[in-house]
Amino acid sequence: MFRPPVAPLCALLVTLAAGATAASAQPPESAIVLHAARLLEVDSGRMLAPAEVLVEGEHIKAVGSSVEHPASARILDLGDTTLLPGLIDAHVHLFLHPGSEGSQTIEESVPERTLLAAAAAKEDLLAGFTAERDMGTEGAGSADTAVRDAINKGLIPGPRLRISGNAIDILGGHEDANRLNPEQHVLSNATYANTADELVAVIREQHKQGSDFVKIYETGPDSLRDGVFTTPYQYTAAQLKSAVDEAARLGTTVAVHGMGEPGTGYAAEAGVASIDHATQLSARTLQLMKEKHIPAVPTFTVFEYFAEHAATPAAAARERALLDYKVKEFRKQIAAGIAFAVGSDVGPFPHGTQARELELMVKYGMKPLAVLQADLINGAKLLGWEGEIGELKPGRYADIIAVPGNPLDDIAVVEHVAFVLKGGLVVREPVVLH
Do both 143 and 247 map to the same domain? Predict the structure, then answer.
């Protein structure tokens, strides 16, 4: 298991402090003009070439082949790059890192995990992810509230965050401390709620502690035998509906970990905001998702990582078989015409590398433009920032990245972000060698 020693943790504090001074605490410049070879209009798919963006304060003022250059503006020529809105990851775990999840959540203190989460947020931002949905602290309670608030106050660098606090699970469920000595009373990585009334009570408590939305484990553990996938459900459709109604009363939504039927169907019946992982969706579930505009969030990258980093050849074969099954089902989902959002499940694999998710969604059947629209337009809607992020238009937040080449020709360029602007503040600039 990976456990950072004391010295690197001290260095982490210095790094975070320096990052906050350089990339967060400063106000946005009064005006910036970005010039690049191309700019993608995400909604239409039109590529503007050449392209310029005028940024004033936190927002985009103008977009075009040529824009006004105020006398006080800083001019940044980004060369042969394509300007895109900042990327959105709708499924992250800032409080996890590579290594044994079961061990790290027990052995690392919440303060240590919060420091590591802050570092993870910075890595994701530098990789071009300017907005994220953190899908549960995995046993760190509402510590993600502190990370989100520190970012919003400019104390540390990181993406715009929607947070859930601890995920919710049943006793003996997917994230419980199963198969361990019960006399040690090892706690779950999620918060228990066994009935509809308990779901409502937990949602109210988490909302009090600062959560933006609700994360519920609806399925697990998973099994694939002789090509047949099974995963037990954890809440009925009626119980999930109680959670969805309570979240709506509080002005928010419910996202579920849903690997397969019947749990994914129950989630769709209840009207959740998203079904994450979505490995198995029946024809009825697909129809409900279309009718209710519920996106699937496939999270391919974490499945690929587990297959490539399994402890034994047998484990690798199991993980690869599950990924192959998932790919086949994904192609059925594309054909059914449901909506998708992009989420990687980063945390079990290294933060800052999750742009791989967009490449895998193209590899397994979607067009590059469709994936970018899923990421940016559907992602903005899912995170509750529709009309504020996800497109390079006047009035939107100036969350802008630059990638080499043309992502419509090669989506993999999103893994090589050269420039990041968040809220009008330059976070990452191209390295110029003299």
Answer: yes
Q: Is there a contact between 322 and 316 (Cβ–Cβ < 8 Å)?
A: no
Residue 175 lies in a domain: yes
Tell me: do 284 and 410 sit in the same domain.
no
Sign of CA dihedral 353, 174, 275, 317: positive
413 lies in the same domain as 308: no
Is residue 433 domain-resident? no
Q: How far apart are CA 279 and CA 296, in angstroms?
A: 9
On whether both 290 and 424 belong to a single domain, the answer is no
Quote the strand ranges of 101-227, DSSP E.
129-134, 160-163, 168-169, 191-192, 214-217, 223-225
Looking at the structure, do residues 41 and 184 belong to the same domain, yes or no? no
| Of 369, 302, 389, nearest in space to 101 by CA | 302
Host domain of residue 40: 6-85+390-428
Distance (Å, whole) CA 345 – CA 198: 27
Q: Are residues 47 and 120 both part of a single domain?
A: no
CATH code of the domain covering residue 215: 3.20.20.140
Residue at 218 is within a domain: yes
> Quick one: 270 and 210 in the same domain?
yes
Instruction: Please report, in tens digits, the pLDDT of each residue of the chain (434 residues total).
Output: 333 333 333 333 333 333 433 444 567 778 999 999 999 999 999 999 999 999 999 999 999 999 999 999 999 999 999 999 999 999 999 999 998 887 898 899 999 999 999 999 999 999 999 999 999 999 999 999 999 999 999 999 999 999 999 999 999 888 777 777 777 776 778 899 999 999 999 999 999 999 999 999 999 999 999 999 999 999 999 999 999 999 999 999 999 999 999 999 999 999 999 999 999 999 999 999 999 999 999 999 999 999 999 999 999 999 999 999 999 999 999 999 999 999 999 999 999 999 999 999 999 999 999 999 999 999 999 999 999 999 999 999 999 999 999 999 999 999 999 999 999 999 999 865 44
Residues 139 and 236 in one domain: yes
Rounded to 10°, the helix 263-270/283-292 angle is 20
pTM: predicted TM-score of the whole model, two decimal places: 0.92
Q: Please state the domain count of the chain.
A: 2
Query: Does a cis peptide bond (omega within 30 degrees of 0) precede residue 232?
Result: no
Q: What are phi and psi of 338, to 5 degrees?
A: -75, 165
389 residue type, one letter: I
Q: What is the CATH number of the domain that holds 80?
A: 2.30.40.10
- The rounded distance, in Å, linking the Cα atoms of 233 and 261 is 8
